[in-house]
């Protein structure tokens, strides 16, 4: 994993390459971790971007966990990023279609998949594979989407949970990079899809090597 370096920031619409977009996100996380955020959720900031077309520079796919508010941990203001959150950042057609929209229609150059430690959805998948007792309802769908990552690391391994969190992020990144409408821009270097992990205790985001 690559730890964050000191990066420069960017305003909405300014970071139009994958590299610049990633630098802006990581700079925001650096400000957050250091206790020096510059963006707040102020109604005047919302009003400032209300009249024009939106120009986000990244789309973040993260977990629904209440401890991982994406705009806050990357210190982003209104109009900077698009955010999608599902249990353990599980993909479905609505999620993929939303990402295809912001990349294809809004010109967003960066997609980040952000996992986090102690993920409850991943824990449910590990428990399901260990016991053979799946959850009921639609939670079973979420568990089914995480299960391949758990299988790859071995559900009975004592470290299955943290290893599966990482593996699931990388599998999600690979799936998005292979998406029919994303694979062309990714191959051309116009768009990048990256994976990262969030540390609940420190607030730091670490990039994952593909």
From TrEMBL:
Its cofactor is Zn(2+). SUPFAM superfamilies: beta-carbonic anhydrase, cab. It holds the Pfam family Pro_CA. Signal peptide: none annotated. InterPro entries: Carbonic_anhydrase, Carbonic_anhydrase_sf. Zn(2+) binds at residues 63, 65, 116, 119. Binds 1 zinc ion per subunit. This is Carbonic anhydrase. It comes from the Bacteria. Belongs to the beta-class carbonic anhydrase family. GO terms for molecular function: carbonate dehydratase activity; zinc ion binding. Keywords: Metal-binding, Zinc. Catalyzes the reversible hydration of carbon dioxide to form bicarbonate. PANTHER family: CARBONIC ANHYDRASE (PTHR11002), CARBONIC ANHYDRASE 2 (PTHR11002:SF79). The keyword Zinc applies. The keyword Cell cycle does not apply.
């Amino acid at each position: 994993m690559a730890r964050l370096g000191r990066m420069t920031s960017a305003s909405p619409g300014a970071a139009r390459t994958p590299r610049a977009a990633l630098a802006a996100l990581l700079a925001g996380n650096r400000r957050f971790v250091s206790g020096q955020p510059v963006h707040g959720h102020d109604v005047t900031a919302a009003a400032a971007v209300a009249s024009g077309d939106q120009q986000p520079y990244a789309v973040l796919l993260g977990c629904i966990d209440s401890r991982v508010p994406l705009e806050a941990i990357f210190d982003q203001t209104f109009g900077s990023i698009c955010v999608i959150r599902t249990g353990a950042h599980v993909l479905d057609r609505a999620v993929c279609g939303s990402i295809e929209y912001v990349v294809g229609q809004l010109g967003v150059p960066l997609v980040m998949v952000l996992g986090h430690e102690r993920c409850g959805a991943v824990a449910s998948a590990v428990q399901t594979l260990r016991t053979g007792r799946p959850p009921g309802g639609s939670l079973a769908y979420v568990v089914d989407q995480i299960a391949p990552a758990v299988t790859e690391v071995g559900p009975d391994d004592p470290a299955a949970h943290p290893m599966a969190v990482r593996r699931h992020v990388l599998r999600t990144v690979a799936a998005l990079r292979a998406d029919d409408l994303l694979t062309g821009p990714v191959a051309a270097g116009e768009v990048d899809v990256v994976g990262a992990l969030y540390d609940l205790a420190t607030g730091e985001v670490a990039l994952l090597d593909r």
